[in-house]
Amino acid sequence: AQTVTQSQPEMSVQEAETVTLSCTYDTSESDYYLFWYKQPPSRQMILVIRQEAYKQQNATENRFSVNFQKAAKSFSLKISDSQLGDAAMYFCAYRLIGGSQGNLIFGKGTKLSVKP
Amino acid sequence: DTGVSQNPRHKITKRGQNVTFRCDPISEHNRLYWYRQTLGQGPEFLTYFQNEAQLEKSRLLSDRFSAERPKGSFSTLEIQRTEQGDSAMYLCASSATGGAPQETQYFGPGTRLLVL
After folding, report:
1. How many CB atoms lie within 10 A of CB A111?
2. Cα distance between residue A67 and residue B33, in whole Å
3. DSSP state of A85
4. What SS3 class is residue B90?
5. Are the C-beta atoms of B98 and B112 separated by less than 8 Å?
6. What confidence tens digit (pLDDT) does each residue in B84-112 have?
7. At a CB cut-off of 8 Å and minimum separation 6, what does A99 contact?
């Protein structure tokens, strides 16, 4: 069974600084997607960034980038120039490509605080 | 382009009562997912529809839970004889098919259930 592990329950960063959130996963499959979702307090979950496992190039979205290490089964999220609005729970998620399985498998999340 | 909507946003009920939640996906999305999220945890998969067909159900979905998507548009999740352990946030997500961007799941705001 696939699992996703986020080893940092909480992280803190100073505004304008850079922070990296860790995620590891376990799977025997080779084709899958990985995601980072952000869930602000009392607000809905929104997609931050997506990575296809068959792509070697790391995904980037403005201030957000990932370090995808397929062999190590590691998928970290780097947030540059942190802003107060980045404060939220961040969830790493895995989804198998193909078959009948359509669901996301989530980690337990990392709570990010941003200090002004 | 409206996002995923869920109703009600909050529900308080007494143990033993039945409750029903509704999810309206993004209009062009043919896949619809239900997840449950308890405090301090990542969302856990409950069930998944492609059009009107329920393709997968988690073992978390006990006999007291039933989900429908009768016309392949909106979906309902019913919990019969609610228990205090059912208290959680129930999240709905939708996606299209056909590759990474289309298969990305977009989440609704959730329905927070409290069983007294």
Report:
1. 16
2. 28
3. G
4. strand
5. no
6. 999 999 999 999 887 767 788 999 999 99
7. none
* Alpha-carbon gap: B38 to the closest alpha carbon of chain A (Å): 10
Q: Does A96 touch chain B (CB under 8 A)?
A: no
Question: Which two structure tokens, joined as six digits, stand for A82?
Answer: 């942190």
Q: What b-and-e string marks burial along B80-111, b requiring 16 or more CB atoms within 10 Å of the CB? A: eebeeebbbbbbbbbbbeeeeeebbbbbbbbb
* Residue indicated by tokens 């995620």: A23
The shortest CB-CB distance from A52 to any of B33, B44, B100 is to B100
Model pLDDT for residues A84-96, shown as the tens digit of each residue: 999 999 999 999 8
Read off the pLDDT of each residue in A55-61 and give the average, rounded to a whole number.
92
Of B33, B55, B104, the CB nearest to A50: B104
Count of beta carbons in the 10 Å neighbourhood of residue B77 = 23
